[in-house]
Amino acid sequence: MTLTSALALVRGLPALHRLEPVHGHHVAPERLRAIVDHGVADGWRFAALLAHPEADGVRLDHVFMVPGQRAPLLLGLPALREAPSIALACPGASWAEREVRDLYGVRFTDSPDERPLLRHPDDYAFRHIEGDGVMEIRVGPIHAGIIEPGHFRFSAVGETVLGLEIRLFYVHRGVERLARGLTPAAALVLGERISGSGSVAHSLALARAMEHALGCPVPPAHALMRSLLLELERFTNHAGDLGNLCAGTALASLLAEGLIIKERLLAASQQLTGSRWLRNLICLGGVRRLPGAAERAAALALLTEQAAALERVADKLFGTASNLERLTGTGVLSPEHARNLATVGVVARGSGLALDSRADLDFASPADTEAYRDLVVVTDRAGDVAARARVRVAEARESLRLCQRIEALLTRADAAADAARGPGAATRDSGEGLGWSEGARGELVTWVRLEAGRISGLRVRSPSRMNWPAIEHAMPGNIVPDFPLINKSFNLSYAGCDL
pLDDT of 180-222, one tens digit each? Predict the structure, then answer.
């Protein structure tokens, strides 16, 4: 089945106009699975499942990324209480279906996993591996360090891990419900606090979704400033992640160096925006204020300085034989597993998948298109801890180059005029929108609906939501003491997953 024929199955269906220019089609429930089977064979990637409660059931929208298409594809089901599961064809959709079942009561027929996801009953049916010498090692959900709760259940013979099962969702905050009734400005304050290290990525995806819904343009200099913040956030995260990776190999000196780099970048973020986490600047239609040329130059000078320091860390990271031995061949995620689980970001690119929404999807703003026109998407097919580290080093270099490019574009743009005009203004007060951003952890997708200028529906699909299940496939065959190292190489967010 070719890509053309898979799309032809969809294009013959009634168009769904709610999210234009995002391509959408109404699908009868009995046809969904066949269409998805054909699409997956042609490279479609599951991206999100949107649930809309109505009086006679729950309306479902399945969002896919299609190779060669510059916008997501949306397949909409009518309101129902029972829907066909697509998790056998798209294993990456399993958590999404289980969550919708827990929150809205929708039953998915022929689901490969009918256990609860958000709920934690005492009789939860964990998977068990039986055999001579097999033992279970249960870790969490409460941990010794100051990390968020997660339960990790290993099946092992001696130190060798045969299987791992992960249970999260111990601190569900109801973020999407909390957003209802909020103005766009208040919703962005909430969005920035979904996950601290992804404040820009979350707020940018939400802002873009609301701008799509309300027909709100973004002045060029404002769009460029938001992209500059996104790349600064990416570099800061990658620097900290590379340092933290060394905690898993007991290379304390490099851990300290990585944390020093991250701290200096956080301090620069504070000077640039007033927030160590780059908060309080992104708003509907742009940014609340455009930092001046001198402020941006100071931040860029410090970033350049810390990039040189990060290169020295990388040289030691890969130049220390004992450290490299721990990274190489550890925590391998095969390209097949990465693809089947619909992974994104560093996890996907570290397993050879060239996925990056900055390169794959169209921007609403021509200024963003120009900023990322020659983006280099870094990949590494090895799929191990070392590969994910190499991707982070190369992406940090690329983020520095992009920041320099964006600053040059800002210098050429009529920033003074854009600053005087302020952010763009909405042209309507109601509508639905889909937005996305490529954060440090990967692609983030946000859907929003507004009525009379206030949020009436919100759905956030973070990169961590797609990548957590992949750790279960990267762990078998490794030893138990390597789990902290493998986990750090994924560096996923608990808060960004459990909304």
Answer: 999 999 999 999 999 999 999 999 999 999 999 999 999 999 9
- Give pLDDT tens digits for 8-54: 888 888 888 888 778 899 999 999 999 999 999 999 999 999 999 99
- 416 Cβ contact list (under 8 Å, min separation 6): none
Give the helix ranges, DSSP H, for 361-428: 366-371, 385-412, 415-421
Q: Mapping DSSP to helix (H, G, I), strand (E, B) and coil, where does residue 46 land? A: strand
Instruction: Report the b/e string of 221-243 with b at 16+ CB within 10 A.
Output: bbbbbbbbbbbbbbbbbbbbbbb
Q: Where are the domains of the chain?
A: 3-109, 134-167, 175-490
CATH of 3-109, one of 3.30.70.270, 3.30.460.80, 3.40.50.2300, 3.90.1520.10: 3.30.460.80
Instruction: Kindly state the helix (H) or strand (E) to which residue 236 belongs, with its residue range.
Output: helix 220-247
For residues 139 and 201, give the distance between their C-alpha atoms in angstroms, rounded to a whole number.
Answer: 30
Distance CA 213, CA 452 (A): 12
Asked whether the beta carbons of 385 and 330 are under 8 A apart, the reply is yes
- Taking alpha carbons only, the member of 321, 400, 409 closest to residue 365 is 409
Element (H, E) at 60: strand 57-65
Q: Give CA–CA dist 453/27, Å, rounded.
A: 30
